[in-house]
């Protein structure tokens, strides 16, 4: 999975973060967006699921600058987050740096995570969306279910999309 994408002058590529440098770039984006910008405590931003997750990374084509990231949990790790359904993956930690917002990076990351889920034989993707992002995910085909709940001190809703 290495798909070029972009809008206007801003061109980027999305790829699975296979090597340690790519993973570190994913973690750096998460730190910038979640820890520094949104105030999520660093000790809860990174967890034991990171080691077994599929991480995707968006990079600016011209200079390799990391623009965004997201991860897919599958198997028992995903089932623990989605009500026990082993055939449904869990999309999470989707983050796009401020300068790249509005360019389609987030949507491209979601589609790359969905493709990784399909490659693993999953039939759907579940996520916990910050409530301000419900419209973004709804435009990508996700439907909210269940009540609002707090996560890292912010309101969230569960959402799902069949693949």
UniProtKB/TrEMBL annotation:
EC code(s) of this entry: 2.3.1.-
Protein origin, superkingdom: Bacteria
CDD domains for this protein: NAT_SF
MF (Gene Ontology): acyltransferase activity
Assigned keywords, A-Z: Acyltransferase, Transferase
InterPro entries the UniProt entry points to: Acyl_CoA_acyltransferase, Bact_Acetyltransf, GNAT_dom
Pfam families the UniProt entry points to: Acetyltransf_10
N-acetyltransferase domain: residues covered: 12-163
The protein, known as: GNAT family N-acetyltransferase
